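Review form for a predicted model. The reviewer records the input and the model, then writes brief findings.
Reviewer: anonymous (R2)
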Amino acid sequence: MRGRIFGILNTLLSVSSFLPVLLAPAIADVLNIFFEGAGIPAVMAVLGVLTLWAGVISWRRNARQGLHEHDRGIPPGPPPAPVSAPGVPDAVDPAMRSEAPHRHRRRHRPVAHGD
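Model under review:
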């Protein structure tokens, strides 16, 4: 299920980044017709301002929702201990340390002497 979600997210990100890649050079060329040499700097400035604006809006929205650690009043400290997934034991048997907890060791046939 996670693979599908991340696949859809990757597709949407690719599609959303496709439009600016096509439009920015076209707009820069049109601006160069009217204002010699101003196309690329103007387009880059506009894209930079839009990116800064989106970042500030996102920062303010997150601050209103209390998503920043300094807004929640949480003192800085060590990160919390990792929590294991349901069904996975917290303590790992030392004999099974090299393998994932869901895998089982293969049973080997006893070796006959002289082989």
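Findings: Residues 2-72 form one domain.
Further findings: Helices lie at 2-34, 39-64, 69-72.
Recommendation: see findings above.
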